[in-house]
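Hey, can you fold this?
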Amino acid sequence: MTTSGSPGSLEAPGAPKAAGAPGPAAAVPGPEGSTGTPGSTAPLLSAAGLHITFPGRHGAAPARAVDGVDLDIRPGEIVALVGESGCGKTTLARSLLGLVPPTAGRVTFGGAPLDYATAALKAYRKRVQLVLQDPTGSLNPRHTVYDAVAEGLRIHGSTGRFADEGAAVADALARAGLRPPERFFLRYPHELSGGQRQRVVIAGALVLEPELIVADEPVASLDASVRGEILALLLKLRDELGLAALVVTHDLGLAWNIADRVAVMYLGRIVETGPVEQVLTAPRHPYTQALLSVLPEADGEEVVLTGEPPDPSRIPSGCRFHARCQVLASGAAERAGVAEACRTQDPSVLDGSGASQVACHWALARSEG
């Protein structure tokens, strides 16, 4: 298992959410300054029936990295995409950014299908920005902080609502928590702490005034002492700017502290989704239960999953989790009368609406019983 406990001083599932970390019913500003509740407005970004397949090597079967995903992200909403390494979450995120065209299905932004022509993608990436997990690797060591933040402005040839480049860079650095911004203009990455470097990366995304950011493990490489600061910054940006975010992580403690909604991914497909408090305090899918059980603060016994996730080129029949499922192994699925379905019937793809949903024969049988 690759799931770690909650980082640093972050709270774990089951504890009250930190101040300033609104739950899924909190009112958040929309992109034009309006307010609304995540789930009550039209999606900003949407994936429908998304499949991403990579050719197999040396005649092997193709790898189904993303194997049927529906996912909506609404203005001002923070969605955490969680799962083990290799489950397909980074490939899904890259496809939502337009970096990996889907094999089937489509991505829409603001109601319009994503256009993969070069000029259209350039315009799209101004509205949707990526924040990577390793700020050191994201920053050119030969570029000053000013040049690193200004790079996006120069690529797109625009300073947005600002009169000049310097004003736009200063505003982005200040919003990212580097104040006074002029103090950082001529510094180089090696002169900054890890937390400061990550703030520079965030400023480089903010300078283009995006509507959504995709943050791939945004605090994984940081010391525990600064992880909470970066997560608090992302929440502040959501509240001040109406910024939506997809946060890709294996860390359920992080998801608890920052997300309105969580989507749990296993072997290329979302297997459980819903409001973060509901999913992480009352998980329905055995895989979600196993991920949560390894947190230090979890109640009950740790669930030890057998084996590794199957090869995405050889996805098993039936429920894709059944070969590792503790519920099936314990006989509980047999007693519920769904063991054969677990082995032979593929659960339906969950829709992207954000409602509480689970792709599990046993969990559905329990809810109907």
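Oh, and this one too while you're at it.
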Amino acid sequence: MGENTGDRGLEHVAGRVWLYPHDPDPDAIGASVAVIADERGSVLIDAGNSPAHAREVRRAIAAAGLPAPRWLVYTHHHWDHTWGACAWADVEVIAHASATALLAAEADRPWSHQYLRDQVTENPKLGPSFRARALAVPDFGELRIVLPHRTFTDTLTLPTGVVLRFVGGNHAPDSLVAVDPDSDVMLVGDCYFPPPFHLRTDADTPDLPMARRLLAERHAYFIDSHSAPRRTT
């Protein structure tokens, strides 16, 4: 039986930035994947939440006639942004330096549907995330967590002019933002979100000061991974 995809297709944002939109079902935890298209090779911002998700994005890139990805940037190490990486071939994976140890720890876990069930039994607050992982990855035999091939600590400019900048934050300590100056678009991942649900307290809220600082840079578009793009100018 062929893969049942539900592919959504790429949406053009501005300039050379395209977006495979987030899954509108919040229970699916399907982050968006951005494509910054360039004839020297496209830049992917995040990998998709599973190999199947990555294959959907790859088909959408081909259908749109965009150059194949050459670089894959993790905005942070969380599963819904990184678990699709093993389905991307011939890409250089780039992340903040602190992501390597975090992903290595995740790679050491014995991922399986039974492991997910056992973990939720021990900590029910993991339920929403782990149920979404079970739906995203029907076959854990094809999952391989890919560690970064290249890291940086402050900023990094890719050969296509895309600028990566470390911002950190409460959601994930390795969070970075990506800016395409040519298109005047900033992609922020989940950097200003509160911590993941299983780590969240009643006092945790979105980091609005961080969001305001980023918005103050006045790029034409501001895109997080679980919302529609925001036009800001």
